């Protein structure tokens, strides 16, 4: 459990505003360092075999302009791909999302660190309506990314990430989720969120991920 909480503490989180083709968007931002070379991190982000191990199985045309689909419903288009530093995709969920192209975009930026490590930045910009953002705040997507990036850290460290469903149902995961939701609450407060709204959103997010 300590290793998982250390990974959680290694990230810096922020919430902001941005734009996608559909209009104004909320952004969640995660920055951290991985003890792996940039080419290794890039491969973990773009190799179908490795994506399956920390994110989800992926199919499609994995090239700029190509479309992809994850085993779980998420799908989109590869908007930019500049190895090994930048990957940007549209990120939609469910068939109804096709009516709203660009409602959600994920961008990952990598930079080589000073000790053969890698600086990692993920920005997820989404146009979010009721009940997601008002109810859950940035933790709606942020906790999910924290869980996935924990699995990525395990993969880059040479291990085999645990099964996602098993992780999320374990007692240790409940503590990880609780602390992740609280961390996103801190980011929400730092962005000017009303303290009562933030507290309610943190509670709702925790119950959603760990009912």
Provide structural commentary.
This protein has about 210 residues and is of the alpha+beta class. The protein has a single domain, classed as Alpha-D-Glucose-1,6-Bisphosphate, Chain A, domain 4 (2-Layer Sandwich). The chain contains 8 helices and 9 strands. Strands 1, 2, 3, 4, 5, 6, 7, 8 and 9 form a 9-stranded antiparallel beta sheet that branches. Strand 4 (about 65-70) and strand 5 form a beta hairpin. Helix 5 crosses helix 7 (about 170-190). The longest helix is centred in the last third of the chain and has 20 residues, at about 170-190. Residues about 95-100 have low confidence and may be disordered.
Largest sheet: 9 strands, antiparallel
Order of helices and strands: HEEHHEEEEEEEHHHHH
- Fourth-tier CATH superfamily name: START domain
Q: Summarize model confidence as the mean pLDDT.
A: 89
Strand content: 25-35%
Number of helices: 8
Q: Give the overall shape.
A: globular
Which structural class should the secondary elements be placed in?
A: alpha+beta
What integer value in Å does the Rg equal? 16 Å
CATH class: Alpha Beta
Helicity, in percent? Answer: 40-55%
Tally the structural domains.
Answer: 1
Indicate the CATH architecture.
2-Layer Sandwich
In CATH, the topology is named: Alpha-D-Glucose-1,6-Bisphosphate, Chain A, domain 4
How far apart lie the N and C ends? 20 Å
Low-confidence stretches: 97-102
**Using DSSP, what is the number of strands?**
9
